[in-house]
Amino acid sequence: MTGRTEAPALAVLSRAPMRVSLAGGGTDLPSYAGQFGGRVLTMAIDRFVTVALQARSFNGSVTAAFEETQVTARVSDLHNAIARVALTRHGIHENLQVASFTDAPSGLGLGSSAAFGVALLAALATAEGRTTDRTQLAEEAGDLERIDLGRPVGKQDHYAAALGGVLTLEIARSGRVRPSPVVVPQPTMDYLCHRLLAFYAGQRRDAGAVLTAQAQSVSRGDHRTISRMHALAKLVAPMHAAITEGKVDDIGPLLDQQWQIKRELSPHVSTPTVDRLYRLAREHGADGGRLLGAGGGGCLLLSVQAGEQAPLRAVLTAAGAHEIPFVPFTAGADATALPLTTREHRRA
């Protein structure tokens, strides 16, 4: 796919799931994992980023419909940075139509940027007739952000989007990732489907500033920050045990422990709105929870005691929070191609 005359006449539809981080989030960042290694427990959910790609346009231009619609002559002029570097990496500079659709916008802490990158790369691989290993897909999508765009992001989101399911990720200091699927027994699956809830706190955030500050603190050897990151990493083992052994009543308190540690990392991790909603949740049936993503706003993940879901939903909805229903999603990224023309039957 290097230009208008060489682009295969294909339409591709791909999707990748978003994720909910269960433990160890932040220890996958290069600033920490590069020194100490990282460990994360994450879960793909049935909220997706879908990419539609048509490797042909009427006049050879590029039409892109993401959070804004843009028509331009060249890929290099695209405003969406991930799309711009992904398409350029694949030698695509013109003659393309591409759009994305999402169940939840960026800035909620669900890993939507990574899911978009993974879905777009899956679509490109399919359009080029390549079969791409999902681990390779995760690495390439991560490289787009870390290397091409210089963003201080870790490995968790891209692996969750590419592989799906519930995963533990062991990140070596070299950056090599060892993903391991987690076997979830039925009692835990019932809990994840019915007692683990997410609410949008009404404030989309840009995690870049929070992540950059955290990375700088770790890089300069700040003992306070590093000790809290160590504490987050240590919570992965008990969370893994709670999930695999069906000890679902341990999950909420473990989420709360993470949240209290994350709040100590920076005064910008939480907001007055988040604090108010979390306090309300704890007063109305939540036995723990945490803010998803780096902080500064986004989604509250709440563990709710059995039978308390309806009252908690009513209270948080009245307080202005918007629930984002989800269940675990066991599959990863996928893509399907549809030929736009059969060359032997094309009219002259």
TrEMBL record:
Keyword terms: ATP-binding, Kinase, Nucleotide-binding, Transferase
GO term, biological process aspect, one: GDP-L-fucose salvage
Segments forming domain GHMP kinase N-terminal: 84-165
Domain of life from the UniProt record: Bacteria
Ranges of residues in domain GHMP kinase C-terminal: 239-302
InterPro entries listed in its UniProt record: GHMP_Kinase-Related, GHMP_kinase_C_dom, GHMP_kinase_C_sf, GHMP_kinase_N_dom, HddA/FKP, Heptose_7-P_kinase, Ribosomal_Su5_D2-typ_SF
GO molecular function: ATP binding; fucokinase activity
Record's keyword annotation contains ATP-binding: yes
Family: Belongs to the GHMP kinase family.
Protein name per Swiss-Prot or TrEMBL: GHMP kinase
Species for this entry: Micromonospora craniellae
Lineage: Bacteria, Bacillati, Actinomycetota, Actinomycetes, Micromonosporales
